[in-house]
Design a protein that fits this description.
three-stranded antiparallel β-sheet; 15% helix; 145 residues
Length: 145
């Protein structure tokens, strides 16, 4: 499908507006919108904590401020980067993402809602890296459906 110059300019404007809003998107919306985030670069770019980048088809979140180096790619530097994990922010959400095993640096926050094992679960603690429903996690996750 070919666009007119006017339509293409309008699309570029819409994308630019969305890119300005990208930093404030929730993790679940960010996860389905990776094109709104810049590609990671290892050529001396300064990254701030909380900044998201796309690298190798995956969305990452910067954990601590740093100036990038070629050997500090998000997939190779877990002290600097964590995979963006999607979660709904309320038990009433209709599109709740599946739980994914987080690393020690990107656990689910208090209130995050995920699906796992046929149930909808809400995290009761910050930095929750435990599997919902696993033995001993009764004080970490609560079934909400």
């Amino acid at each position: 499908m070919a666009f007119t110059a006017e339509e293409e300019a309008a699309l570029r404007g819409i994308i630019a507006i969305y890119k300005t809003q990208a930093p404030s998107l929730s993790d679940d919306v960010a996860e389905i919108s990776p094109a709104l985030y810049d590609q990671w670069t290892g050529d001396g770019h300064y990254y701030t904590a909380g900044e998201r980048v796309e690298h190798g088809g995956t969305l990452y979140v910067c954990l601590q401020p740093h100036t990038s180096q070629a050997d500090w790619a998000p997939s190779a530097a877990p002290s600097l980067w964590a995979r963006n994990l999607a979660a709904a922010d309320s038990p009433g959400a209709t599109d709740v993402p599946a739980w994914e095993q987080p690393d020690a640096t990107n656990g689910y926050p208090t209130g995050a809602v995920v699906t796992h094992g046929g149930s909808k679960w809400q995290s009761l603690v910050d930095n929750n890296v435990w599997e919902p429903g696993a033995a001993g996690t009764e004080t970490l996750w609560q079934v909400v459906d």
